[in-house]
Amino acid sequence: MTFTITQSHEGLTRTINVAVKADGNKRLSDIDTVYDGFSLGHDFPNPQVSTYERAFTVQQGITPNQPHTIQVSARHGDGSSDSGSKTWND
User: Fold this and answer.
1) Going by C-beta distance under 8 Å and a sequence separation of 6 or more, which residues neighbour residue 36?
2) For 8-29, what is each residue's pLDDT tens digit?
């Protein structure tokens, strides 16, 4: 799988963009996105998809020098799975 995770912060709003591309001809059946230990979304596409994209908006003030992590876990319809993450400091 290929994971693309980006984030931006403007004022009190953080925008998190997640994209997952399935391997080969496989389909995605389960995608879970976690930000700093809290679930942002757990999606079960029906029908299953070869690509997944979703944007999340989080209300959050500036947190100087604080570490943040986005963890995305995905599963193919055949049960195989993978994950990707992005970590940064404000």
Assistant:
1) 68, 69
2) 988 889 999 999 999 999 999 9
DSSP for 38-81, written as a single string = EEEEEE--SS-BSEEEEEEEEE----TT-EEEEEEEEEETTS-E
* CA distances in angstroms from 39 to 23, 27, 65, 68, 69, listed in the order given: 25, 23, 22, 14, 12
pLDDT of residue 64: 81
Domains in the chain (CATH in brackets) are: 2-89 (2.60.40.10)
Task: With a cut of 90, say whether residue 60 has pLDDT above it.
Answer: no
